[in-house]
Amino acid sequence: MKASVIGASGYGGIELIRLLSNHPDFELHAIYSSSKENVSVTEDYPHLAEVCSLPLTKIDPDTIKETSDVVFLAVPSGVASGLAPQLAGGHAKVVDLSGDLRLKETNDYKKWYKKEPADKAFIADAVYGLTEWNRENVKTAKVLSNPGCFPTAALLGLAPVVKNNLIDMKNIIIDAKSGVSGAGRGLSPLVHFAEMNDNFRIYKVNEHQHIPEIEQQLTWWNKDTAPITFSTHLLPVSRGIMATTYAPLTSVMTTEEVYALYVETYKNDPFVRVRPSKQFPGIKEVAGSNFCDISVDVDTRTNRLVIVSVIDNLVKGAAGQAIQNANLMFNFDETSGLKGFPMYP
Ligand SMILES: NC(=O)C1=CN([C@@H]2O[C@H](COP(=O)(O)OP(=O)(O)OC[C@H]3O[C@@H](n4cnc5c(N)ncnc54)[C@H](OP(=O)(O)O)[C@@H]3O)[C@@H](O)[C@H]2O)C=CC1
Ligand SMILES: CC(=O)N[C@@H](CCC(=O)OP(=O)(O)O)C(=O)O
After folding, report:
1. Where are the catalytic residues (predicted)?
2. Is 149 a catalytic residue?
3. Which ligand is located closest to the Cα atom of residue 96?
4. Which position among 149, 228, 286, 315 bears the catalytic label?
């Protein structure tokens, strides 16, 4: 199956190139850029020498949608909303990594992204691809909306207790940290070396665009969902997300009971690893892989549950989950092309 990547010169794009170049069922067919034409991707990214010799090509949606079987969109939010509808409706299936097709309420998109949304009916038809929790719909999707990096980590961590009504849905606090590649390749003062190195910052306090995405999925799972508290911090590392979630349990439970629920819930999910009691994951333990590692612990003094989940923002948080979804859309093994282990140390 022929796979194409638009936005191939960005961090999500090159991660797609890396994973697709080693995929047994997809062939990397073409890579597209809006600013570069006929230059090899190795000019900007020498590490891809002899991995990908394709030139970056001008984006022509009419051609792409008939010559590719699947097209991955790794362009900024506000750009995908224009390109995705032009790419849909032809031969190719579309997998969008941006935030543009995730929020079913277009007013939420306007409020949190401060941009004009795509057509509401088009968004309604896009399948939200939090793979572990939406497999049947992912399999038949023609347009797939890949979840955000923070929502992936937070939601995989919360799902078992939210779906089983075990926590107070009015008191969820998610405290998340991300490596700098989460911000993409573009420069900004926040990610400038001198600002970020030896530093640790909170950003987008109470106004992060992933708040409505997390609340949307929580509401689909549990109607008692109330607004969450969600904060994001920038770590001076390249890759990785840790989401630490705090929520009061609705009845007294032990760590062992909660742990048993998580093990049972995720026993058939190849990319979710539930850690043994008291073994809390670090971001390095999933780096370069499509794993989400989760650990749970009950604070017996407060009866509050602490959930720790880690992912690589560029893999399970972006390109890896996008390929996991595409595998299902083409009836391939879900793990195809994604069996790489974490890099450690
Ligand atoms: N980085 C991460 O960890 C994650 C990113 N995402 C999402 O994935 C998408 C890509 O992110 P990321 O790769 O990090 O971002 P980058 O900024 O690194 O790359 C984005 C790419 O989009 C292309 N682009 C920019 N403007 C346009 C335009 N007007 N038309 C077409 N292409 C354009 C650029 O390539 P060129 O100039 O060559 O066209 C650029 O290389 C974003 O929507 C992001 O929110 C989602 C989850 C995690
Ligand atoms: C570290 C960092 O800056 N991360 C980005 C993640 C953005 C992203 O992936 O954007 P969408 O999912 O909304 O498209 C942020 O916090 O905004």
Report:
1. 149
2. yes
3. 1
4. 149
ipTM of the complex: 0.98
- Rounded to the nearest whole angstrom, what is the distance from the C-alpha of residue 156 to the centroid of ligand 1? 24
Structure token pair of residue 299? 């604070």
Question: Which residue segments constitute the domains of the chain, with CATH numbers given?
Answer: 2-125 (3.40.50.720), 150-313 (3.30.360.10)
Q: Are 277 and 256 in contact (CB under 8 A)?
A: yes
Rounded Cα distance between 309 and 159, Å, is 12
Chain segment 173-208, per-residue pLDDT in tens:
999 999 999 999 999 998 999 999 999 999 999 999
Tell me how far the alpha carbon of residue 146 lies from the centroid of ligand 2, in angstroms. Answer: 13
Averages of pLDDT over runs of 10 residues in the chain (345 residues) are: 98 98 98 95 95 96 97 98 98 98 98 98 98 98 98 99 98 98 94 95 98 98 98 97 98 97 98 96 98 98 98 98 98 97 93
Ligand 1 pocket: which of 15, 19, 34 to mutate (most atoms within 8 A of CB): 34
Which tokens belong to 235? 């770590």
Q: What is the pLDDT of residues 16-58, one digit of tens each?
A: 999 999 999 999 999 999 999 999 999 999 999 999 999 999 9
The pLDDT score that the predictor gives to residue 227 is 98
Strand partners, 138: none
> Which protein residue has the closest C-alpha to ligand 1 atom 30?
34
| DSSP 3-state of 236 | coil
Strand ranges of the sheet holding 127-128, from the earlier edge strand across to the other edge = 56-58, 27-33, 2-6, 70-73, 93-96, 143-145, 127-128
Q: How far is the CA of 135 from the centre of ligand 2 (A)?
A: 24
> In terms of residues, how long is the chain?
345
Closest atom of ligand 2 to CA, residue 150 = 6
Ligand nearest the Cα atom of residue 109? 2
- The ligand with the least distance to the CA atom of 80 is 1
